[in-house]
Amino acid sequence: MRDTLNAASLRRLAMECAAKASRQDCSSEERDRLEKMRESLLALAIDADWLDGKCSPVASVNPEDRQSA
Questions:
Q1: Which range marks the domain in which residue 21 is found?
Q2: Which of 1, 24, 38, 47 lies 20 to 30 Å from 9, alpha-carbon distance?
């Protein structure tokens, strides 16, 4: 049994980070931190998919490009 979250859970957390970052009461410092967390979570989701054999590794380094892989 794995301790890590699955790709869907990681993507859900990334969406929550994006939603919090877009709130008007979010400071610029917090927004930057949330955006970095979102990018990291999306990259982890891609890696989780790859580890589960759901996709092949993608050459792109940008999580936005890799999200649909």
A1: 7-66
A2: 24
**Domains in the chain: how many in total?**
1
pLDDT tens digits for 24-62? 999 999 999 999 999 999 999 999 999 888 876 665 556
pLDDT tens digits for 3-32? 678 999 999 999 999 999 999 999 999 999
- H helices of the chain, in order, are 7-21, 28-51, 63-66
Whether 1 maps to a domain, the answer reads: no
Q: Tell me if the pTM is above 0.70.
A: yes
Other residues' Cβ atoms within 10 Å of the Cβ of residue 5: 15
